[in-house]
Amino acid sequence: MTMPSLTTEYASPIPLQARIATHRKHSEHPDDPSTAVLAALELTGTEDLADIGCGDARFLADLHAAGHTGRLVGVDTSAAMVAAAAAIGGVTAVTGDAQNLPFRDGEFDACTARHMLYHVPDPLAALSEFRRITRTGGTVVVVVNHARTCHYTHQLVAAHARNHGLTPPDGMINHTVTSETLPDMMQNVFGKTIIETHDNALIFDQPRPLITFAEALFTFYGIAPDAPPRAQILADVTSEIEHWFASHPGQAWRDPKGYTVATATR
Fold first, then answer.
1. Which residues lie closer than 8 Å to 103 by C-beta, 6 or more apart?
2. pTM of the model
3. What is the arrangement of strands in the sheet containing 49-52, beginning at the earlier edge strand?
4. Domains in the chain, please, with CATH?
5. What gap in Å lies between CA 12 and CA 1, rounded to an integer?
6. pLDDT in tens, 193-213
7. Which of 255, 244, 235 is nearest to 163 (CA)?
8. Which end of the chain is less crowded, N or C, counting CB atoms within 10 A of the terminal residue's CB?
């Protein structure tokens, strides 16, 4: 069995895309972190921008499609995500570590790090790198989730993983990086920081979308794609979710969530 890690989690974009699709389709209120980031950046369209931990680079793809003429660079540690970024016209894809970025001092007008800082072993080192590669007067925007975001679904998956002797792998998530701790981290590195908090929830009125979302969390709880008990765990998770809906007729599964957008000027 392959030991789950950030490398295996992001070896394919499919679980990430499933989570993104879930938040887009099943949020209680419209959920659009990209719009919040763009509002914080106040781009003119000519800025050189680095997106650290770019994932499948849809944020940069949308910027390019909207006519952004500045340099757009997507950075990720995952070969699959770098390949996805490289496939997008107008985007430069770079393999890189957020704690030691392969860029010159002040190389970018803007730097974004969206929902990735809790994957970094030393978040303060990463924030210092974001500051270093951003020019004086440039903007750095960081987004992280609230603590206990989607806790009920995470708790469900974790319980079934434990039933089969599986536990969350070390290093998958830095639990010290949350909406509650990010403001102090940002102020420590940048000084004055603007904090904007967004509260929301996932709402499921039928089992199948919740099952899909739960499965997209499996690797974070030690359930590798090739884990022998994976099929049984999925069957057990499916059964519990279907039982919940059957025993709560007319009710929706509501799982609170949220994120914080922190903006600083270099």
1. 50, 133
2. 0.92
3. 91-95, 72-76, 49-52, 108-114, 134-145, 253-265, 193-204
4. 6-265 (3.40.50.150)
5. 17
6. 999 999 999 999 999 999 999
7. 235
8. N
